[in-house]
Amino acid sequence: ATAPLVAFCDADASMDPALLPHVVDPVRDGERDLVLGRRIPSTRGAWPLHARIANLELARRLRRITGVPLHDLGPMRCGRRTELLDLGILDRRSGYPLEMLLRASAAKWRILEVEMPYAPRVGRSKVTGTLRGTVTAVRDMSRVLAEARAAAAGADRTPGGGA
């Protein structure tokens, strides 16, 4: 990719790509470094209860670690390509979105969450739709969180709190 901005959007029809400007514009205009689309279910069955509960817990942990007032790991997001690459994200599976947020927060990025309608997906989720996918996602995200906690604990033990 060579474009200055990179936008992410799941291709399962749960979020309307026509709404990408809501996450792109604040980055393009220099107001924010990373913008996430917060999922707001448009129907009762749009977001399975187990997935919503897991996301709420993950967002709570993320807020506690980063101090960033996030409510969702939003699958629609936008950031500047070179800065995203500079984050040095290592995870290539389910931990990627979480690692992006943790590293962006550590880099003092200006992060914004905007509400987006969330519709029932087309097809079955490879993550929350199968036991294997769910176990893999939990394992990946738990590892990313553990690494973040270990890094924070190490910084707190250095003289000056890691500064």
UniProtKB/TrEMBL annotation:
Keywords recorded for this protein, A-Z: Transferase
InterPro entries in alphabetical order: Glyco_trans_2-like, Glycosyltransferase_2, Nucleotide-diphossugar_trans
Domain spans labelled Glycosyltransferase 2-like: 1-81
Pfam families attached to this UniProt entry: Glycos_transf_2 (PF00535)
Keyword Transferase listed? The answer is yes
Q: One GO molecular function term?
A: transferase activity
User: Transferase as a keyword?
Assistant: yes
Which family does the UniProt entry place this protein in?
Answer: Belongs to the glycosyltransferase 2 family.
User: What name appears for this protein in its UniProt entry?
Assistant: Glycosyltransferase
Organism for this UniProt entry: Clavibacter michiganensis subsp. insidiosus
